[in-house]
Design brief:
Shape: globular
Structural class: alpha/beta
Helix content: 40-55%
Order of helices and strands: HHEEHHEHEEHH
Number of helices: 7
Distance between the termini: 46 Å
Largest sheet: 5 strands, mixed
Radius of gyration: 14 Å
């Protein structure tokens, strides 16, 4: 099995099937993906980069996100994971990621948060809830 598939299997096994049944978007980031245009206006991509699927920060981040799945769904967050630096993924390269890093991209396509340590769900949600687009979403 390729490392890419192993990363995906590891990530999927860390999440219960109930999270996926609810529609939470957790997926491996393809090395060939060069931009996030498919999400613009619809979702807030949360990119989680790690040196490998066994990285402690990666595991901690996934656990934090798993426990906050309802908040992810409510805020249209799609989690994209890249645990294979050796594939030189286009987004990893474009963002010059060299270790563990979390990058939140808004629905407008701009980077809203970039952090080299796991992000607490509360911090993530607070940052999103302060955004003008999110405020409009909550008022509708």
């Amino acid at each position: 099995m390729s490392t890419f598939k192993q990363s995906l299997v590891t990530a999927l096994s860390m999440f219960g099937s109930a999270v996926f049944a609810q529609g939470a978007g957790f997926t491996a980031l393809a090395p060939t993906q060069k931009d996030l245009s498919e999400y613009k206006g619809e979702s807030r991509p949360l990119l989680v980069f790690a040196p490998d699927p066994e990285d402690p920060d990666f595991k901690d981040q996934l656990a934090e996100l798993r426990d906050a799945s309802d908040g992810l769904l409510d805020r249209d967050i799609v989690v994209l994971m890249d645990t294979e630096p050796e594939t030189y993924g286009k987004l990893r390269t474009a963002l010059a990621v060299d270790s563990f890093e979390v990058v939140l991209v808004g629905k407008d396509g701009s980077v809203k948060l970039r952090q080299k340590t796991p992000v607490a769900a509360r911090l993530l949600f607070d940052r999103i809830d302060e955004m003008p687009m999110r405020r409009r979403e909550m008022s509708n």
